[in-house]
TrEMBL record:
All copies of domain Peptidase M14, residue ranges: 18-271
Family: Belongs to the peptidase M14 family.
Keywords annotated in UniProt: Hydrolase, Metalloprotease, Protease, Zinc
Coiled-coil positions: none
InterPro entries to which the protein is assigned, alphabetical: Peptidase_M14
Protein name, as recorded: M14 family metallopeptidase
Length: 385
């Protein structure tokens, strides 16, 4: 399928009721109800706070693909893309035919519903579920492990979101989407199993280069057996980490969701229509490793306490009245020539203060700053519809 066809398909099938960053069980349960006549929907367990963990099963094929989203509750972009994908699978029977005939998909749309509701990475017991793969100390971890054991997937898609700091290599190219074929041993051996995952990632990268050239990265593959991806990979199930990242001015991640959708569609079509042996893994090795070259805002040439310096801000994502607000917070003071800002302001050696007139310091939270007594807003929500 041509790129333009996939983009057109996305526009038709995008689940418009899911929008911006705050996605919880309350948002997806009406959608699951509507989908229940077209696919198998179940409650497969409960969270620490007794919230249901839902599953979706669709397809009749021999190739079994397990995917889960919002293991970290505040990483919701991939959940939106899942429902965009499900709409496509049910609405566009012709395009979806090979996927549904050759694959069986088992999807957990929100693994950590308590974290999703509180908009936190961790669960209600303050545990990072992606470091609980061996201890299995949390009910949500046990649910995922039970599904893995029972479903016996041939592929695992571990769906996450990443911060705005990441670059594709040590460059000024944003890592809008990142992937990883996790290591399965301390030596980070490129095993036959990892090659299979790498081949699928190479296919997704090939698709994405048409729409976001030079904005795809891979994570460092340092091995940690406590991580779910490393554990499943070490048990010889090809596992792929997805990371939904930033696109210019897209703090609601509405543009990025389309690229995740395109990635999922590309991966599933490739798995459905090919015998993925790992023989075509080498292009994966050419994808640049993620750097950390970005801040949300950099004010350059600022006069702070009589010295000329740069000021770097990161946005603190804060849940206020069931909406995510972005609060600029001073992260760095000093020479930031080695970093890039998603937004940059040249203070031209003028005095820069907090919006309330106080001195800027590390940790200061500022909706706006004052440059030579003129107030300037640091965040403007330009998220794409």
């Amino acid at each position: 399928m041509e790129i333009k066809e996939i983009q057109s398909q996305f526009k038709v099938c995008k689940e418009t009721s899911l929008y911006h960053r705050y996605i919880t069980n309350t948002h997806i349960e009406p959608l699951l109800e509507k989908l229940s006549s077209k696919m198998e929907i179940k409650v497969i367990g409960t969270s620490v706070l007794n919230q249901p963990i839902h599953s979706i099963k669709i397809g009749q094929g021999d190739k079994k693909v397990l995917m889960w989203s919002q293991m970290h509750g505040n990483e919701s972009t991939t959940t939106k893309a899942i429902f965009d994908l499900l709409n496509t699978l049910t609405a566009n029977k012709t395009a979806s035919k090979s996927i549904l005939e050759h694959c069986t998909l088992y999807i957990i749309p929100i693994l950590n519903p308590d974290g999703a509701k509180a908009y936190t990475r961790i669960n209600a017991n303050k545990v990072d579920l992606n470091r609980d793969a061996q201890a299995l100390s949390q009910p949500e971890s046990k649910v995922l492990r039970a599904v893995f054991n029972e479903f016996k997937p041939h592929f695992c898609l571990n769906l996450h979101g990443q911060r705005t700091i990441f670059s594709a290599g040590e460059t000024n190219n944003i890592a809008t989407v990142s992937f990883l074929s996790p290591a399965q041993d301390k030596a980070c051996t490129i095993t036959a199993n990892r090659k299979v995952a790498m081949e699928v990632i190479a296919e997704m990268n090939s698709t994405l280069q048409y729409v976001i050239p030079n904005q795809v990265g891979v994570y460092d593959d340092a091995f940690n057996i406590n991580c779910v991806g490393d554990t499943f990979q070490s048990e010889n199930v090809p596992t792929i980490l997805f990371e939904a990242g930033h696109f210019k001015d897209d703090y609601g991640r509405e543009v990025t969701r389309e690229y995740i959708y395109m990635s999922l569609w590309s991966a599933l079509k490739y798995i459905a229509n090919n015998d993925v042996s790992g023989a075509k893994y080498e292009p994966y090795l050419n994808i640049p490793e993620n750097g950390k070259c970005f801040l949300d805002v950099i004010i350059r040439n600022a006069s702070i306490k009589g010295k000329i310096t740069d000021v770097g801000f990161l946005f603190k994502e804060t849940l206020i009245n069931n909406k995510i607000e972005f609060i600029p917070k001073v992260e760095r003071l000093g020479n930031l020539n080695n970093l890039f800002g998603h937004k940059e302001i040249d203070a031209k050696k003028e005095s820069v203060l907090c919006g309330d007139g106080l001195e800027l310091e590390i940790g200061s939270e500022n909706v706006c700053v004052s440059i030579n007594n003129a107030k300037i807003a640091l965040f403007q929500n330009k998220s794409h519809e």
